[in-house]
Design brief:
homodimer, about 325 residues, alpha/beta, Rossmann fold, seven-stranded parallel β-sheet
Chain lengths: ~325, ~325
């Protein structure tokens, strides 16, 4: 198999050449939960063999700058510069520019730090110069010295709109400005559904040895990715083993509103409900030890259920979860 | 006289209605020297009756942001937030974003502070939204609570290019990056010469009671303004008394490369040489006490020479220079 000319990344090394069953791994990623898992994965295998497809349904413009919160959370975490306390943003961040914007009457509920601004300045400048979002992402990845590839799900605008009990909101209005308090009645991925997958997205799913859905919000983080035309089909058709890690543990989301989103949209707030959402393409479903009793329900969906400690409190937890999933995936090939 | 509909500012109060001989003053301004004088002027008369026409020949784009250094120096000084030590930039500034840009491989010789960035973000966003530079300037003026009107000389691109012994340079490459070390062999104002004056510029010269050329570099700060079509003609034809303050004292510029520019371009580095450059429209020329002996040369050019202490070390110096010039101008009407 030769690399297609339209595909920019050198997917040259194949499992046959390497002796390991899972060389090329592609991860569908939201923000904080995904970033934690990716940190573990990058410690458990050569990071250059990991491709991240990042959700851009939460991208937004603030003060004229294009901000890609999920992509940056992954970037900062993999670069080792994330604020580990909160899981996003840069460590040791300051907010002098934001304070100045506030004094000038700007809305500043989205907290852009001074160092973080540099990322958005570079990205926005490249976009204005005609670069695509993936080209800008690739430059940022290099600038931060991150070896995993990070591709946005699409280069097109794909902002998620939410119908809530407090009116229609953009994702960031819901998530940051209103602190996830409104009830989400409908998630509108029509922008994502009208977009094209970014270069490399479908190929990274098709050619991977395994694809992993990170423990991210299945509705608001993975949902937009699956709404991009071709991605769900690629997941169904790939020869890669597709795995997913439940972001729901003991009926609650480890972070963010995933449990409430699942409930208000009529799904159950359980690991099994998440598995059901991925039923048409996931072969291995990782659920937490606390939810071990759901193993049977999940296996009845035709998936292999893997019980693990999915709560990642330390770097060791992250590496361990990634390592055990890799081992499981290798065993299946 | 009714205000023209194309002229956005309410030039309603006329000297006849106010009892003072000089109500409406328009100042042609470069950066630090002009800002110091303007601070004094705004203390000596109602600031709302001052219009500043700012040089934008030194505007440049950094990291995708439109930066207007001279306009901002005037803005920050009049808002009382300037770094008084250096005469430009914001007091108590930090550079965290710039350091992050540098880590990402960006050129950072133009020192943008974190708080300063907020100004450029707002301006750039408004320009991207389709606003003119003067509309953005007006919003910034209000945001900073400055009562003097500040108008860019033009809303069009008007960057000064310099032919130097180290090649062709933009103004900021010469001024900041190479610290004014190259010899300027030719100043190219062709962009300014191809621009249109911003709304209000010609009217503010025509309708003013007096126009003052601030003590700014006559080549690189006032030169671009005079190159904008219609401005020099308006200065020649206005009924306002046109005055200029020499930026050259004792054969040297108080700040910046004005003396060297005058010399390398074949003019003398003297107050009288500056007066000669303005000969066709200036009626009152203010020279420093140190240069009192040049009074006669200047008066032979058909100007009224006013000797004053032009070196402005304190706020009191600034107010005194402005006050004595206002008194002189009032006496002439």
């Amino acid at each position: 198999m030769s690399a297609g000319t339209e595909f920019p990344f050198p997917f040259a090394c194949k499992k046959q050449e390497r002796g390991s069953a899972c060389n090329m791994i592609t991860v569908l990623a939201g923000g904080v939960g995904a970033a934690k898992f990716l940190e573990g994965l990058a410690a458990a295998m050569p990071p250059a063999e990991i491709t991240v497809i990042a959700n851009t349904g939460d991208d937004a413009e603030f003060h004229g700058l294009h901000v890609s919160p999920d992509m940056d959370t992954v970037l900062y975490t993999l670069a080792g510069v994330v604020d580990r306390e909160q899981g996003w943003g840069l460590a040791g961040e300051t907010f002098h520019c934001l304070a100045a914007l506030e004094r000038m009457g700007e809305e500043t509920w989205f907290r852009l730090g001074d160092r973080d601004l540099a990322t958005h300045l570079l990205r926005t400048r490249r976009l204005r110069q005609g670069a695509t979002l993936s080209e800008a992402a690739e430059e940022l990845r290099r600038a931060f010295g991150v070896r995993c590839r990070i591709i946005p799900m699409t280069d097109d605008p794909a902002g998620t709109r939410l119908r809530t009990d407090q009116g229609e909101l953009s994702f960031q209005e819901y998530f940051v400005k209103l602190r996830q308090k409104p009830e989400v009645l409908e998630a509108d991925f029509s922008a994502a559904a009208a977009s094209k997958p970014a270069p490399g997205v479908l190929e990274s799913i098709t050619r991977a040895d395994a694809v992993i859905l990170a423990p991210s919000n299945p509705i608001l983080s993975i949902g937009p990715i699956l709404a991009v035309p071709g991605i769900r089909e690629a997941l169904r058709n790939t020869t890669a083993t597709v795995a997913a890690i439940s972001p729901i543990v003991g009926g609650r989301a480890l972070k963010g509103p995933a449990a409430r989103n699942l409930a208000s949209l009529g799904y159950g707030a359980t690991a099994a409900a998440v598995a059901e959402l991925y039923r048409d393409f996931v072969k291995v479903f990782v659920l937490d030890e606390q939810d071990a009793r759901q193993r049977e329900i999940i296996e009845r969906k035709g998936m292999r259920a893997m019980v693990a400690q999915t709560v990642m409190r330390s770097s060791e937890d992250r590496r361990k979860l990634a390592g055990s999933l890799l081992k499981e995936l290798e065993g299946l090939r």
